[in-house]
Amino acid sequence: MATLDSAISAAASALSAERLRVEVAVSNLANAESTRGPDGKAYRRRDVVLAAEPVDSFNDVLGRATATGVRVADVIEDPTPGRQRYEPSHPDADKNGFVALPNVDPSEEMVDMLSAARAYQANLTAISLIRDLVQRALEIGRG
Question: Model-level pTM?
Answer without folding.
Answer: 0.82
